[in-house]
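Dear colleague,

Following up on Tuesday's group meeting, I ran the structure prediction for the two-component complex that the binding team flagged. I've pasted the input sequences exactly as they went in, so you can double-check that nothing got truncated or mislabelled along the way. The structure tokens for the whole assembly follow below. Feel free to forward this to whoever is handling the docking comparison.

Inputs:
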Amino acid sequence: MSKAQQLQLDAILRQGGLDTAGDVQKLRAAFNELMAQVPVAPDIQQRRLEVGGVTGIEVTVLGNGAENVILYFHGGVYVIGTAVASVPLVGDLVRRSGTRAITLEYRLGPEDPYPAAVQDARAAYEGLLAQGIAPDRIVLAGESAGGGLVVATLLALRDAGTPLPSCGYLMSPYADLTLSGQTLAEKQELDPVLTPDGLRARVPDYVGGADAADPRISPIFGDLSGLPPLLIQVGSHEVLLSDALRLAGRAARSDVAVTLEVTPGVPHVFQGFAGLLDEAGVALDRAAEFLKAQLAHP
Amino acid sequence: MSKAQQLQLDAILRQGGLDTAGDVQKLRAAFNELMAQVPVAPDIQQRRLEVGGVTGIEVTVLGNGAENVILYFHGGVYVIGTAVASVPLVGDLVRRSGTRAITLEYRLGPEDPYPAAVQDARAAYEGLLAQGIAPDRIVLAGESAGGGLVVATLLALRDAGTPLPSCGYLMSPYADLTLSGQTLAEKQELDPVLTPDGLRARVPDYVGGADAADPRISPIFGDLSGLPPLLIQVGSHEVLLSDALRLAGRAARSDVAVTLEVTPGVPHVFQGFAGLLDEAGVALDRAAEFLKAQLAHP
């Protein structure tokens, strides 16, 4: 772990900051341009596919088995982000965990507000089951809004009586769209990526006419009992730190096996910077160990 | 992990319950009698010693190196418990982590209320430093009140400018003597060991004339910045669950590296039941991995 790496990454992120509160189309274009600069490692293989009627990108590494699948949900406050933009991080995770992944092109607000994203995530998972893949060979994983979507999807599956996947892996989950977390203000100066105002501006795009405190939008308010083991990783330089803390707390109080790992001095979804930051690789390695321990036949 | 093991342990604990609210001397005698029934594994070696003017028991396993030391604080709401009663659990930890441990006979209330325990813990740590042991070869660990004492001691050492140990390992920490945690009521039916009334009855014994919300008594109220990495383990069947949750949250918000592991369905300091409960061994193995990763030369 290097303080110099942390400071360098912080400076880079502050330069490339997105105005999350601006026009949606411009924001998406700027985000996609930014993410297109992130290289995909040469050993990563990707192809478009459809699962349960939803498109996605299958990500794998030559030599990995196809039996175990990570169903992955990208970040972007439920409004921006794409499957392709998540491939570099998903590739890093796939390489370390010996699995394949499908990163999903779930529908976004404001064109398709809640519950579209949850419906797509659930349909894709049920599509995997329909292919004959056992639940205990599937992981749900996601970053930021995708982390919240993991829990929202687990709740929907649980309530429908569908067999649940082996576990959930959440990076910096966005899990409270009422924006009531105390680190929203506390960590504002330290967070080089997200701002409370930027988040607030996009909430209506996803919430639409629903209640932002609905547990399938903001799972920190839900009864999480019956969920499979969860690994939650978060940096301490995040306005969304308290989303992770409260989600872990709610899971614990609901008798769910939960591991929370807080890495100090690093930003939102720091796992995406494995080339720049030692902490990213360390966190992904720990996640891979967690996945292997939870999957029925790693 | 076995539900049958969990249920069996729960039944045993409910039979052997202590009336924490009763007379102190009777309570201590009953606790010591109960703990004397727990066998010490035959490979464990122990001897009385003194460190920094405080007595304790050195616990080791033949073949373990003496370079790395766990300074251990037993539980017992700062009023009951002894070093010798902690030897079975400390021995299990020592065997797995390849270290030696010193479990400390720190002073207890009501005879010696706060800050006696913190003074003894600090004196013992400084005694280890005075022996020439490097801080990064020392771990502070403890269970229940001993877990709270780990953090209180770290705060005292930090404030004094003393070099801090490599890390802290806390099992089911008792970290809020104002008893404000929401799981105190929420988990009352599920907890086979502790009750809110039993805890409340003993608070004045330790707090004495001080403020129960003082961070060196209740570290969930403290600024924890500058502390070394913490591993916090807790069961979900505990009235003290929210002590662990809030301590992890406070550490995270103070930019401390913290790992929180919540094991569902198990009671207070479940690591003490390694013979009965698979989860105990799993948790101690993970703790040993954490210690090895944090110690300078594992």
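Strands of chain A lie at 44-51, 54-61, 69-73, 100-104, 138-143, 167-171, 230-235, 258-263.

Cheers,
M.
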